[in-house]
Write a structure and sequence with these properties.
By secondary structure, the chain is of the alpha/beta class. It contains 9 helices and 12 strands. Helix 5 (about 125-135) links the parallel strand 6 (about 105-110) and strand 7 (about 140). The longest helix is centred in the first third of the chain and has 17 residues, at about 15-30.
Length: about 290
């Protein structure tokens, strides 16, 4: 199957965040023109949750796995009647099932937390683990407007440009997402001047900082040299920690895109500090795009 034909996969578990993720994923699948695959993975055969029971119009809170996927399928089809939607129930740890599903997916979508009851500001352990190992781009739904792709709320997609411009997979994904939505892409490169390079001399005080800023501008220009000519592209260099700069930018974006290096043979969590911070604190949905180290 060609990459353009691969389905978009959404992980569900009956929780309110996963119901919102289904809405967002169905919009994204329709925008891409690909099928939507709903995946429910759990070691338990029954689920107790008030959110889904309410969605099903049932007073009882005990729900079967097939009812969880069935509710998600109906929800997706109600938003996009022509969308091809399939469902799969897997009695396995969600982390393993979703990472495996990512091998044959154009993208993977999950809620920012599951039914563990953690605070909204925290990222669930399943989402974090899958984001660190997924084989395809993964979108974690965050923010109050996270259940819609179109129409856009802020009309802007933001991509983080790292130190290595050769991470073309991240930028290609960003170009495509902005073009599909018909919105500008804002490419952000953060920079800092180390304290030991500063000077108190009034004529030289700004020289080290300007050199770092200039390097950031050159890095940004080099990274974006192959940007589509028909894409409205905004370049921005910002002084500060990349984590803070990107979280600030997320307050005015519909999607924040960051990269995650994948090292061959490395079994630990393969998420850098920037991606980790974005997943925990972004004000909008975050797309983590894997690329070779």
């Amino acid at each position: 199957m060609n990459a353009v034909d691969l389905p978009l996969v959404v992980g569900v578990d009956g929780s309110e965040p996963s119901l919102r993720a289904t809405d967002w994923a169905s919009d994204e699948a329709a925008l891409r023109g690909v099928p939507l695959e709903v995946v429910y993975a759990c070691l338990w055969e029954r689920y107790e949750g008030a959110a889904l029971a309410k969605d099903l119009g049932r007073p009882s809170t005990q729900v079967l796995p097939q009812e969880i996927t069935g509710a998600a399928v109906r929800r997706a089809r109600s938003r996009h009647p022509d969308l091809k939607v399939t469902a799969d129930v897997v009695f396995e740890e969600p982390e393993y099932a979703l990472v495996r599903a990512s091998r044959n997916a154009s993208a993977l979508v999950v809620g920012n937390r599951g039914r563990s009851g953690l605070a909204e500001v925290l990222l669930g352990s399943v989402s974090l683990t899958v984001a660190a190992h997924a084989h395809c781009p993964m979108v974690v739904l965050r923010g109050s407007h996270d259940n819609q792709v179109t129409p856009p709320v802020h009309g802007r997609v933001v991509v983080a440009v790292g130190e290595h411009p050769e991470s073309s997979a991240v930028l290609r994904f960003a170009y495509e997402e902005a073009r599909r939505r018909g919105v500008p892409l804002e490419a952000v490169r953060a920079w800092r001047c180390p304290a030991h390079e500063s000077t108190d001399h009034p004529l030289l005080a700004e020289a080290p900082a300007r050199l770092h800023e200039q390097h950031a501008e050159e890095t940004l220009t080099q990274a974006l040299r192959d940007a589509p000519p028909d894409l409205e592209l905004h370049r921005r260099t910002v002084e500060g920690h990349a984590r803070r700069v990107l979280v600030d930018a997320s307050h005015h974006a519909d999607l924040l895109i960051v990269g995650a290096e994948r090292r061959t043979g490395h079994r630990g969590l393969q998420l850098g500090r920037v991606a980790h911070a974005a997943l925990h604190h972004s004000a909008c949905p975050v797309a983590v795009v894997p690329h070779p180290a």
